[in-house]
Amino acid sequence: MYSLLKQFIFKIDPEMAHDLAIKSLKYNFLPEEIFKVKNEEILETKVFNTRIKNPIGLAAGFDKSAEVYNSLFRFGFGFIEVGTVTPKKQFGNPKPRVFRLENDKALINRLGFNNDGLEKVSNRLEKNSPSGFLGINIGPNKDSNDRIDDYIKCLKAIHAFANYITINISSPNTPGLRDFHKERTLQTLLEKITEFKKKSKIQKPLVLKVSPDIDDTIVNHIIELIKKFNISGVIISNTTDKNRENLVGENKKEIGGLSGEPLINISNNLIKKFYKQIKGEITIIGVGGVSSGFTAFEKLKSGANLLQLYTGMVYEGPGIVKKIKTELIDILEKEKIKNVREIIGISS
Predict the structure, then answer these.
(1) Which one of the listed residues 65, 122, 170, 171 is annotated catalytic?
(2) Which one in 166, 189, 320, 325 has a CA-CA gap of 20 to 30 Å to 336?
(3) Is residue 171 annotated as part of the catalytic site, yes or no?
(4) Consecutive 10-residue runs of the chain (348 residues): their mean pLDDT?
(5) What is the distance between the alpha carbons of residues 19 and 117, in angstroms, rounded to a whole number?
(6) CATH code for the part of the protein at 2-28+36-343
């Protein structure tokens, strides 16, 4: 169905197409049965001491304001991450701000944490309990005078509705946000957040979402700090504001974060660097170019425990989850692997 609709969808503005998708998902009209696959038990895994059906998740950025997460679970995702949520409602950067690069199977966006704000999102989550494993991605407002306090406000208000909370320090579209990757700045952030978490007796795992544009020195100090402050996971990675040299799409020079297929190797290489130092100690969620069973297999082999996608669904529609799972199961069975967890990190 999506292949027929795609030619019309891609004639309209990408952000308008996304808004239409969110509106249509509110009607929940697609039956869950059509997204089921055989032998999915081979994909069963664990995240933060909880069993989930498969390691394929939806990245933050699609359901920014937590409007349709339960409809998205019906597509067969093992977990969903909503957000980024900020304390105050935020429009984001001026439009146009999302650009397709069809020949590269990529997107460039400079959205800027547009969302309905903490109060509305919290009310939605309270009224509509998640039907699956849910992560909530939090960040500061662009005009905030105290960005660390913004993270704490979000954590305080929203932790009860989440299975885990993602601290987003990696979007290239909020000026100065990536400064939190610096050792002293990150130490202060994690120290204050974890102090508040302990004082408030919040039990939910914290996950740190990092930039793909970091060098080895920064990797080392991030690992030291996530160990020091008992951060449970790391998402590798957000979009890149670099790596444009091999793109062919006419929008390749647009300012913003690049996602999709061009991130595959960048993401996999960074995952390997982290995995070599944190084998099994910290959950790695791999993001960047996951659109097939093979790309999922390679990212898991690099060291990711779980996977997330977004751009792939823009190009292939909701059926991409079933496709990835079917292809991944086929690969695992041919390799005589009994469970997906056996392949984590074997190429690192």
Answers:
(1) 171
(2) 320
(3) yes
(4) 74 92 86 90 95 98 97 96 97 96 95 97 96 97 96 97 97 92 94 97 97 91 96 95 91 95 96 93 96 98 97 93 97 96 92
(5) 17
(6) 3.20.20.70
